[in-house]
C-alpha cells in the first residue's frame, strides 16, 4: 500500500501551487499602477494626513459626547466641501446597548454624492 500525505496537506499544497501559478501569470498586470489614479492619490496625500492629524488630536472616548460631536462636525465639514449633501443622524431609541453604552450615543454623518449630469 503506497504512503500518501494526509488529505489536508494535499489540499493546502494544491491551493498554494495554484496561488503561485496565478500570481506568476497575472503578476505584471496586477502590479502596474494606473498613473492617473496614482497622481490623484499623491495630490491628496498631505490633505489626508492633515485630516487624520486633526481627527486623532480630538479627545474622544465612546462616552465623550463633546469630543464625538467635534469629530462628526469635522467630517461633516470636509464632506460638504467635497460637494456632498451632508446631514447628521442621531441614533434612535432602539440603539443596541451594552452594559457600558453611554446614555447619549454619538451622532452619525451621512453624505450623498450625486453623479454629474451626462455631457457636463
In terms of topology, how is this protein built?
Layout: H1 7-31, H2 35-56, H3 65-81, E1 85-89, E2 108-112
Antiparallel strand pairs: 1-2
Uncertain segments are: 7-11
- Per the principal axes of the C-alpha atoms, what is the gross shape? extended
> What portion of residues is helical?
40-55%
CA(first)-CA(last) distance? 74 Å
Number of strands: 2
Cα radius of gyration in angstroms:
24 Å
- Strand order, sheet with most strands: 1-2
Structure class: mainly alpha
The number of helical segments is 3
Overall pLDDT: 79
Tell me the series of helices and strands, N- to C-terminal: HHHEE
Strand % is 5-15%
Largest β-sheet summary = 2 strands, antiparallel
Describe what is shown at a glance.
The protein is mainly alpha-helical and 120 residues long. Helices cover 53% and strands 8% of the residues. It has 3 helices and 2 strands.
Characterise this structure.
With 120 residues, the chain is mainly alpha-helical. It contains 3 helices and 2 strands; from the N terminus they run H-H-H-E-E. Strands 1-2 form a two-stranded antiparallel ribbon. The radius of gyration is 24 Å and the shape is extended. The termini are far apart.
Question: What key phrases describe this protein's structure?
Answer:
single chain, 120 residues, mainly alpha
